[in-house]
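Suppose you are handed a protein chain with no further information: no name, no annotation, nothing but its sequence. What can you learn? This example shows the usual starting point.
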Amino acid sequence: MPEISRFFGIIIAMYYDDHNPPHFHARYGEEKVSISIESLTIVAGKVPPRVLGLVMEWAAQHKEELEEDWNLALHNKPLKSIDPLA
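A reasonable first move is to predict its three-dimensional structure. Written in structure tokens, the prediction is:
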């Protein structure tokens, strides 16, 4: 699973062979969540509320880049790194 960003102990990644709807994965310790890129809603999983807030803030700032990475993943092309939450 290619890592596309990392901040505050949160790892953001996408799979190359993942299913629709377009989404990304966030991992914090042992906890994981999948977030829809379009609606910024939880597809599956759970992380602490503070972590979810940080992930949602980051995703809102980088929605176009996430969509671009999703399209790259569909075509098995290298994903671009996305700046962390500052």
